[in-house]
Amino acid sequence: MSVEPKYAENIIVAVAHRREWSWYVSAKELWVMDWRRWAEDWGQNPDETDYSSRFGIEVLDVSTAKTFFQRMGQYRETTGFLRNLVGKVYDYRGLKTFKFEEQAELLADLWHLIPSLLLDFDNKQLISNYPETDLVLEHYMPTSWTVKGTSLFEVVPSAHRYWIIDGRDAMTHFSEILYQMGGAG
To answer: Which residue in 115, 123, 117 sits closest to 62, CA to CA?
Structure first.
């Protein structure tokens, strides 16, 4: 069953695990890696917290990844599925006929399709592209993990960059339009 991304409801997550890349679309809370620390921050006793909504997994790390991904199968999406979603929104040739403001309106649906997070279990690294401040996912990494200070868009292998449509980068195009609008107004 495919889940379409909806901004602030669920997120798109890239995962590198055992040298394999995959995409997931699910609630952002499932990707809080250390639920024990998260529970503490909410004033709860981590030993009395119910972790059943995340398959009983308290801390998502290398040792619990296999079980987690087995249970997350319903949320796994193909690059092709995500590329089709972007393709429904993004038509470069058609957009060229519109003013920047009109292009921005037409591309607004791309907000839902921006990947929010990359979890690299092979190198124990997290790259966050999650724009909201309601949940800072980097604060809840296992202690052995690091935040990689690079663009998620650059790290994903080209074969999995679903935002590339007919050789054009839809996300970069959208960013350029927004930047130009901000510079003009």
So the answer is: 123
pLDDT confidence of residue 126? 95
Side chain identity at 126, as an amino acid letter?
Answer: L
pTM: 0.88
Tell me the average pLDDT across 57-66: 96
Q: How far apart are CA 54 and CA 170, in angstroms?
A: 33
- In angstroms and rounded to an integer, the radius of gyration of the C-alpha atoms of the chain is 18
pLDDT at 155 over 70: yes
At residue 102, does pLDDT exceed 80?
Answer: no
The CA-atom distances, in angstroms, between 129 and each of 18, 20, 54, 136, 162 are 22, 20, 22, 10, 16
- In our burial notation (b when 16+ CB lie closer than 10 A, e otherwise), range 111-138 reads ebbbbbbbbbbeeebbbbbbeeeeeebe
**Which among 146, 105, 147 has a CA at the least distance from the CA of 130?**
147
Half-sphere exposure of 170 (CA within 13 A, CB side): 30
Residue range 10-17: average pLDDT? 95
- Whether the Cβ atoms of residue 153 and residue 159 lie closer than 8 Å to each other: no
**Chain center to CA of 12:** 3
